[in-house]
Amino acid sequence: MKGKKVLLTGGTGGLGLGVTPTVLARGAEVTIPYHNPKEVERLKGFLSPADFTRIQFVAVDLTDESAVQQLVDSMEQVDVLIHLVGGFSMGPTHAYSLEQWKQDFDLNLTTTFLVCKHSLRRMLEHGYGRIVTTGSRGAVQPAGQLAAYCASKAGVVALTQAIADETRGTNITANVVLPSVIDTPANRAAMGAENASQWVKPESLAEVICFLASEAARDIRGAAVPVYGNV
């Protein structure tokens, strides 16, 4: 990935703490949209001073199409899109509010659509691209109390595979990873750390993502890759 221009969404989040350093270690030049400045400062503690010359942080609302378009158009080119943004909430379907349902779909699926749409437009212009999105085990093995999360992540899988079909015959690929529980600070706070040793480490998931984002994965299209750890 040396010299590749990478748009890495969610790069300051819990998963990003593992993915961002891994992408930078492969020589990429990275643009990271962010929402919370405190998360930017936290991420910087995981990076070396040399990394700062190849990373750019941009404050962006990824549910705002005009903001996403402006972000993508501001980049010299987009060789790779790695989309980590997403979120998870629980509740029984009969008591789940429509407002929360819409928020979950905006966060998990609408952001994926917008960054894929505009990144793909730029990739088609120069005939190269790697798109890696983040689904969930729940997308293919839905669980109770997680209807909105599982449904929105299933949408991410379908969207990614549709893009893979649309880009057949080009040097653009689209694939999605399906992690189970990821060992992030937020998940430890929400679920306790008793079983964290069985969860997927961000650094491990980062290796899978970076492979799919690399030239070596040129023949992999539309894959939904399970990364379940020992859960």
Overall radius of gyration: 17 Å
Straight-line distance between termini: 31 Å
Order of H and E elements: EHEHEHEHEHHEHHE
Q: Give the class from helix and strand content and strand pairing.
A: alpha/beta
Gross morphology: globular
Largest sheet: 7 strands, parallel
> Residue-averaged pLDDT, rounded?
96
Instruction: Write out the strand line-up for the largest beta sheet, numbering strands in chain order.
Output: 3-2-1-4-5-6-7
Number of strands: 7
The proportion of strand residues reads 15-25%
Q: Based on the structure given, which CATH architecture is correct?
A: 3-Layer(aba) Sandwich
Look at the structure and name the CATH superfamily: NAD(P)-binding Rossmann-like Domain
Model regions low in confidence, pLDDT < 50 over at least 5 residues:
none
Q: Please identify the top-level CATH class.
A: Alpha Beta
